[in-house]
Amino acid sequence: MIALFLIIWIVFNGRLTWEVAVLGLLLCIPLYLFCRAFLGYSLRGEFRIWKRIPWAIRYVVILLAEIVKANFAVMRLILSGRLEPEPVLFSFRTKLKNETSKVVLANSITLTPGTITVKLSDDRYVVHALDRDISVGTENSVFEAMLAELETQEGGAK
């Protein structure tokens, strides 16, 4: 954390001299101690975050791929003059336990074109889909599987 603060200090200064580095170090140490004392920062928490970065990168790549696939499905539906959209409102339950995971799943569904998470309560989602074909696979999505994998990793780490 001190290194991150120091890098930010140097970037904001726009140059690297020994005076900037020493002054930055003298300012970063109390800032680090403040974060530990009042913001709940810990090295263990930081290491947990760094361990999740490969998972997060993989999740974002899969999310972007799903967004592109859904874009093509929505474009096909809209640009095809003979296909009539069949909007559908459906609900499903998730096995996710962590509240953050549930919200990330809801946001991932909403970010995917053609679907909107209308309601999330406990483990039940209500989702609106632009077409019945677009709604297929939402309840057993790759997002839910990845989030469940993360919950399992976190549960094993505790």
Task: Please describe what this structure looks like.
The longest helix has 37 residues, at 43-79. The model has no long low-confidence stretch (mean pLDDT 88). This protein has a three-stranded antiparallel sheet with strand order 1-3-2. Helix 1 (2-13) packs across helix 2 (18-38). With 158 residues, it is α+β, with helices and mostly antiparallel strands. It is elongated, with a radius of gyration of 22 Å. The protein has two domains: 2-38, no CATH class; 43-157, no CATH class. Strand 2 (115-121) and strand 3 form a beta hairpin. The chain has helices spanning 2-13, 18-38, 43-79, 99-111, 132-135, 142-157; strands at 88-93, 115-121, 124-129.
Descriptive terms for the model:
158 residues, alpha+beta, three-stranded antiparallel sheet, 3 strands, 65% helix, elongated
